[in-house]
Amino acid sequence: MKVGVIMGGISSEREISLNTGKEIVNNLDKERYQVQSIIIDKKTDIFDKVKDLDFALLALHGKFGEDGTVQSVLQTLDIPYSGCNALSSALCMDKDMTKKVLIANGINTADWVMVKKGEEIDVNAVETIGYPLVVKPNSGGSSVATGIVRDREELVNLIYEALKYDNEVMVEKYIKGDEITCCILDGKMLPVIAIRPKSSFFDFTSKYSDGGAEEVIVELQPELHNKVEAMALSCWRSLKCSVYARVDMLIQDGEPYVLEINTLPGMTKNSLFPKSAAAVGMSFSDLLDNIIQLSLKERQK
Question: Which CATH code is given to the segment(s) 91-107+176-299?
């Protein structure tokens, strides 16, 4: 079976995608799959470079990759692909839409307001949430142009910076607590990972630098674990995820709050999903094989 690892892309997360793609190529079972690296440099490449594939293993991040666009193209071309379908991908990529679905399903998430490019920033309305605040591009990832602000000047400056990367910016109530991530494979949650960044915030550097953060498997207290697992799986069902996804949360005073859902989690050597899978004895190669086989089954539905 010819498996094309789709990487690169046109988003601000291109370099992370290339790293993910290379790691995947290096760890795929070459005895089982004929592996081909496919680097996307422009949008039309997705039409030109995938035609002879039996399966597309997506290593893309950000817009035109994680937002359902590429998934829709591959579906139109009848090429099975990895991970969630176009609808779930689009919903989870849009943080505002994700939160609306979460709230509709009774799932805890921090209060937020949206700021749109071309509209005057209503600072007073934003500040009603109360400082500190988190500013982030609505459809961004990898914590690009994302940060915590504690006053009006910082707020306005970071909003303008984030608007360089997206047409909408989310301003969210800062939840001070312990960050965890819940990796879900085929509707079942793998061991929970606690994220302890060396800085005060799990930013781009913390995520992708060796030693930028301590990421350890943790055993939560039974009651909290049950609450976290129920919430993670509720996110999975509410957003109609399939194959695999990662739910990021913050725990404040024993209460979990969902940050976001990643439908194409990173797969670099520093990434969280392979670490969680390893905790149940699943090698990186086995994880990739599971993703391929589960995706093939999902696309046949």
Answer: 3.30.470.20
2-83 CATH choice from 1.20.1440.230, 3.30.110.70, 1.10.10.10, 3.40.50.20 = 3.40.50.20
- Picking from 3, 119, 114, 109, the residue whose alpha carbon sits closest to that of residue 56 is 3
Strand, coil or helix: 131? coil
> Catalytic site residue 248?
yes
Among this protein's residues, is 118 annotated catalytic? no
- pLDDT band with cut points at 50, 70 and 90 for residue 142: low
| Statement: residue 207 has pLDDT above 60 | no
- Does the annotation count 172 as an active-site position? no
- Residue 104, pLDDT above cutoff 90: yes
Q: Give the active site residue among 142, 270, 276, 295.
A: 142
CA dist., res. 45 & res. 186, Å (int): 30
Listed by start position, the domains of the chain span 2-83, 91-107+176-299, 112-173
- The end-to-end CA distance of the chain, in Å, is 20
Q: Is 13 a catalytic residue?
A: yes
Average of pLDDT values for 283-292? 96
> Residue 200: what pLDDT?
56
Q: What is residue 266's predicted lDDT score, i.e. its pLDDT?
A: 87
2-83 and 112-173: identical CATH topology: no
